[in-house]
Amino acid sequence: MNQDEHSAHLEDHFLTRRQFLQRAGMGFGALSLAAMFGSELLVPAANAMEAEATLLPKTPPLPAKAKHVVHIFAQGAPSHVDTWDPKPALTKMDGQEIPGQNGVAMGSPFKFEKKGKSGIEVSEVFPQMGELVDDLCVVRSMYTDIPAHEVATIMMNTGSRLVRPSVGSWVLYGLGTENQNMPGFISLRPGGAPPGGTANWQSAFLPGIYQGVSINTKVPTLNQLIENIHNPVTPLPEQRRQLDLVHKLNEIHSQNLQKDAQLESRLEAYEMAFRMQTEATDAFDLNKEPQAMREMYGRTAQGNQMLIARRLIERGVRFVQVWAGGWDHHQDLEEKLPDRAKDIDQPLAAFIKDLKQRGLFDETLIVWGGEFGRKPTRDRNGGDNPGRDHNSKAFTTVLAGGGVKGGMTYGRTDDFGAASIENKVHVHDLHATILALLGFDHKKLTYRYNGRDFRLTETSGEIVKAVFA
Fold first, then answer.
1. Which end of the chain is less crowded, N or C, counting CB atoms within 10 A of the terminal residue's CB?
2. Do the Cβ atoms of 39 and 47 come closer than 8 Å?
3. All residues at 6 or more sequence positions from 235 whose CB lies less than 8 Å from its CB, including other chains
4. Which residues make Cβ contacts (< 8 Å) with residue 97, sequence separation at least 6?
């Protein structure tokens, strides 16, 4: 054997252009073949699912009781023992040490009264909601994982402490939306970003068209409400021509090369922005409402939000998230909690009455609640005007409409409201129940990402069927 023939030579490391093309020619052919077959040849699962992403309405696999969801998120963690979960034993122990609670009992300063035919006890801070208690399902046995605002807020809105799609994105992914001229998932926030920011309405690894659209309802004018909704330079007919050209170019790109999921999502966003110029302008214009209706909701920031939520629901928007925060009462609870409750009491009561009048109540699932609850003891930082510290072991969520049984309470906390002890409902259980009311088995509504099937409820979650009408 000639060793020289098997040894590397300097000239072997240099190729002429002709030699390179001769040796690499088959590789170019393979690249062309891949383009002909499309991206599915390389990453079939992810790209195929993204390419099929659509906002068109879909029929759920199971019988559905609700078509829309309005989540009024009381961010900041309302005190359940001062609103929906009365504790006479706590009042009797006021000022005394509670065994095992490492603190002094703080009886609620608010009176509870039985309301409606159901006789459910409701705090005096909710006079108008109390009159509608026969339409409400009060879940008193909620609990979550961690009593930290940002983590628990994201947990309530996404079902995870990690970066995951929000509940609204999962609902949009499963059901699509009834109005193709409006976003199917809209988040109404009164000003700045909440704890966790955009994570609360993101689509994460779901296709971008399922991400929520965040609207700042605090601004004074419609053009500020939906930023850049109108193009001040290009008229609508010319915008339509530009979009049609972009779609044609994209079609040529798809035929000759491959479909690009990110490009498809971007074009869908452009198309939605174009259609929103007329539809959204009308939906968010509260001046088109009768004066009596404006007064019924209350001419407040929260009243405007709830009225906008009704206008969105009647236009077919699938999921509306309403931020109603300000419940973090570590001190001055006796003064601050009634003020905050007053902000939402009239608007939410008006919203329920309005939906009933329009025949939308039975198909709209309403969810009110915070990210966790409050301790039965006085917060040591409260001084002479105490409040309550965080408590992840017990809180209350109120449900209404959308296939939920009204005039009932579900679950129970201990005598002091420190922990849920009967028919406990975790955040995953709540999410599983929401999906079930919309016609989904939460274990089967999945999306494949990075080789794994993900779902909203991760690896747990039980449907609370007892609350179904």
1. N
2. yes
3. none
4. 103, 104, 105
Q: What is the pLDDT of residue 12?
A: 47
Residue 54: φ, ψ to 5°: -150, 150
Please give the average per-residue pLDDT across 333-354, as a whole number: 98
The residue extents of the domains of the chain are: 3-42, 46-232+273-467
Comparing 381 with 270, the larger pLDDT belongs to 381
Q: pTM of the prediction?
A: 0.83
What are 274-321's pLDDT values in tens digits?
Answer: 566 656 778 888 999 999 999 999 999 999 999 999 999 999 999 999
Please, are residues 171 and 185 in contact by the beta-carbon 8 Å criterion?
A: yes
With b meaning 16 or more CB within 10 Å and e meaning fewer, what string describes 100-131? eeeebbbbbebebeebbeeebbbbebbbbbbe
State the CB neighbour count (10 A cutoff) for residue 58: 14
- Find all residues with CB under 8 Å of 280, minimum gap 6, and list them: 181, 182, 226, 229
Query: In which region does residue 77 sit, left (phi positive, over 0), alpha (psi from -120 to 50) or beta (all else)?
Result: left
Out of 260-274, 369-383, 429-443, least confident range: 260-274
Query: Is residue 49 a contact partner of residue 447, using CB atoms and an 8 Å limit?
Result: yes
Residue 442 is predicted with a pLDDT of 98
